[in-house]
Amino acid sequence: MAGPFSIPGTTIVVTGGAGGIGYALAERFLSEGAANVVLADRDADQAKRAADELGERAHGLALDVADEAAVAEAVARIEEAHAPIDLWCSNAGVAAGRGLGDDADWDVSWRVHVLAHVYAARALFPRMAERGRGHLLVTASAAGLLTNLDTAPYSVTKHGAVALAEWLAIRHGDEGIDVSCLCPQGVNTAMTAGDDASAATRLGGDYLEPADVAEAVVAALHDGRFLILPHPEAAAFEQRRAEDRDRWIGGMRRAWHKIRRASRQG
Ligand SMILES: NC(=O)c1ccc[n+]([C@@H]2O[C@H](COP(=O)([O-])OP(=O)(O)OC[C@H]3O[C@@H](n4cnc5c(N)ncnc54)[C@H](O)[C@@H]3O)[C@@H](O)[C@H]2O)c1
User: Fold this and answer.
1) Is the CB of 65 under 6 A from ligand 1?
2) What whole-number distance in Å separates Cα of residue 211 and Cα of residue 46?
3) Is 150 in the pocket of ligand 1 (CB under 6 A)?
4) Could you list the residue range(s) of the whole structural domain that residue 164 is in?
5) Is residue 35 part of a domain?
6) What is the pLDDT of residues 64-114, one digit of tens each?
7) In the annotation, is 154 catalytic?
8) Which contiguous run of DSSP H or E holds residue 135?
């Protein structure tokens, strides 16, 4: 279990911060009084534009989270330029691959949704452990607790993200390092802009706005909760899955038939 995290005066990094959920997190952290928020994104121009919009406490940084050396260098540079990193939001994500996808889809999903968090932990945790404090927030997905019927690479690697976040929370809690895991269902961002009425994510219910997700994150950081569920119904879905896996798979099969019927008619 994470301890309460107080935002005012902190230095925070948000990967995938150029848009969507990452941008909303950065905006909210700044309005809560963070001293520095670094928006790190492989889309360097957009990260810089986003930081310019958010004012002088926001800083854009070009970063590919799947490049371990670049992550290590970013950590060192940010700590030198600003202050020790209090919170790293490992939020960058990709929607790669329909169905079973191809090997390139699996590779990029594994690198961005799992290895990127490993790289962040390798670079940050020794520093945080030495200070006796620090927080890593992993943006996984409700797909990592349940499943996303549209894409196996996304769903499986998000399960990996949840498992890794749990492992890190358990293994590093004694060092004063807290970990939390953000698992939204659908959110209106560039990633879901192409979702039509038959998108499997719509099964879970209404899409939230990125600002709603940021609201849930700030509340969970304040309460010191590991699992952050901006759609509270995801907790009930996960419970039903755990209670009776066969019944859950049967229900999901029926849902899949419904989606396929709707997309044939649409
Ligand atoms: N939108 C949803 O419905 C939803 C639901 C659950 C979880 N998520 C997760 O939330 C996170 C944010 O997604 P979003 O919806 O805001 O999408 P988005 O596409 O708006 O933002 C993702 C950002 O990640 C950046 N990115 C991708 N690969 C990168 C890399 N290798 N290095 C650095 N940056 C990289 C992109 O440039 C982009 O700015 C992702 O991890 C996503 O999987 C999204």
Assistant:
1) yes
2) 19
3) no
4) 11-265
5) yes
6) 999 999 999 999 999 999 999 999 999 999 999 999 999 999 999 999 999
7) yes
8) strand 134-139
